[in-house]
Design goal:
The chain has 437 residues and is mostly beta strands. It has 2 domains: 43-251, Cathepsin D, subunit A, domain 1 (Beta Barrel); 256-436, Cathepsin D, subunit A, domain 1. It is 5% helix and 34% strand. It contains 5 helices and 27 strands. The chain has a 6-stranded mixed beta barrel. A 5-stranded antiparallel sheet has the order 1-23-22-18-19. The model is unreliable at 2-34 (pLDDT under 50).
Length: 437
């Protein structure tokens, strides 16, 4: 679920999806320093995650959503707290976003110049999230992984989170919204029916969700709306949404490890895995010999080669993303010779080949390494008819031709493997952050 704000390239959203990944190999064209961190005393650094339909269930949910629970508290309180289930785990965004309808605790607004700060985030599928920024204490795993304040800020002052307002105090600014492809239609994610869950837990490679650009430039993401008239706001880093992991009070602030079991070619009703916090900080998050791919300044692979085409960041930036329900790559016209055809009806945009087809992509890291990822693409309509929710062999169009195509290794990529996400600025060997798999 990537922001369409220039930092990353895409988000896919459909009501049911999947893809089959079968092999990966890595090559090192240059130095690839190991990640070494002193192991601390063991803490409870693991949260359970479930791949399934989400809050709406089979009748209204979507496949390959990955969900966990998050505890949100009024800053400084240990009693005025609420456990929020069915929060989407998203390695393609940064910061916690919670539906206002899921919140019962009172949270103070973040203010700029005496005005409540608002945020509008539009994703590449033209869906958007809009509402105020508030301060909260956030806890995810056990009693140890708590984000009580932004690093360097007052103790127990909370971290900024985004409240997706069902009844916003001001209309979403037009400057945030791009023109949608169908009759100008855009979809807000401010209800459980449209989001499919109660929130989004953005734990990607960045510590904040906009960074230096929003500090000094007029980026159409943060706003103040005195009297209901909204204007773009410049926002210091400490008041932007924070990746909760980067603000933990434990030693596990440098990234995450996500582990999910494999599924068969016809999928599974659901699967349960682990979201483990920290990289190299505990006995259960050691990276070992896993191949590390540093991301570029746009949080993408610098390039990915597929089917003889080189996709280069940022215009055709490619990435991995648990918030994308399928593997999005190329387009049906470009892939026609392989046997790929686009689905019809309510799954248009996904691939429905007559038989399962294998593909290989080659991602490159900014640290001069590359590897191959092999995956299978099956008929999406047939997979939906199984009634399952977790698939490893579903894909769809990323664009309409080579000029707009890219590769988005969505949730299916994560099934059956361990994937590390390193946060930018936490490791001098990979200053932009990294993925390792």
């Amino acid at each position: 679920m990537m922001h369409a704000n220039g930092r990353a390239a895409a988000r896919g959203r459909v009501l049911a999806v999947a893809v089959g990944l079968v092999l990966l190999a890595g090559c090192n064209d240059g130095s690839s320093p190991s990640i070494t961190t002193t192991i601390t005393t063991s803490v409870t650094n693991t949260a359970a995650v479930t791949v399934g339909f989400g809050a709406l269930g089979p009748s209204g949910g979507y496949v390959n959503g990955i969900w966990t629970s998050v505890i949100v508290c009024t800053p400084g309180s240990t009693t005025n707290c609420e456990t929020i289930p069915n929060v989407l785990v998203d390695t393609g965004s940064y910061g916690l976003r919670i539906l206002s309808s899921a919140l019962t605790v009172s949270l103070p607004n973040v203010q700029i110049g005496g005005n409540a700060l608002q945020e509008c985030v539009q994703f590449a599928d033209f869906a958007y999230a809009w509402g105020p920024v508030a301060s909260a204490s956030v806890q995810i795993a056990g009693t140890d992984e708590k984000a009580l304040q932004v690093p360097g800020q007052a103790t127990n002052s909370g971290i900024p989170i985004h409240i997706l307002a069902a009844s916003p105090s001001a209309a979403v600014p037009s400057s945030c919204l791009a023109t949608a492809p169908i009759a100008g239609e855009v979809m807000d994610l401010n209800t459980v029916e449209s989001l499919g869950g109660n929130g989004i837990l953005g734990i990607g490679t960045e510590p904040q969700d906009c960074g230096a650009a929003c500090v000094t430039e007029s980026v159409p993401e943060y706003y103040i709306c005195p009297g209901g008239a909204c204007s773009i706001a410049e926002v210091p880093l400490q008041q932007q949404l924070w990746n909760p992991v980067a603000a933990f009070s434990s030693s596990d602030t440098n990234g995450i490890l996500l582990t999910l079991p494999a599924v068969t070619a016809t999928g599974a009703a659901s699967v349960t895995g682990s979201l483990i916090f920290g990289v190299g900080t505990q006995s259960n998050n050691q990276i070992g010999s896993t191949q590390v791919y540093e991301v570029d300044e746009y949080a993408n692979f610098p390039k990915v080669v597929f089917n003889g085409v080189t996709y280069t960041s940022p215009d055709n930036g490619s990435f991995i993303d648990t918030g994308s329900e399928v593997i999005f790559f190329s387009d049906a016209t470009s892939l026609a010779s392989t046997g790929i055809v686009e689905c019809s009806g309510n799954v248009q945009g996904l691939y429905c080949p007559a038989s399962t087809i294998p593909f290989t992509v080659t991602p490159y890291g900014a640290n001069n390494v590359h590897g191959t990822v092999q995956f299978n693409i099956a008929n999406a309509s047939a997979l939906f008819n199984t009634g399952n929710a977790a698939f490893n062999d579903m894909g769809g169009d990323s664009g309409s031709g080579p000029a707009t195509d890219y590769v988005d290794l969505g949730l299916p990529f994560f099934l059956g493997r361990q994937v590390f996400v390193g946060i930018a600025g936490s490791n001098s060997s990979y200053p932009n952050g990294f993925w390792a798999f």
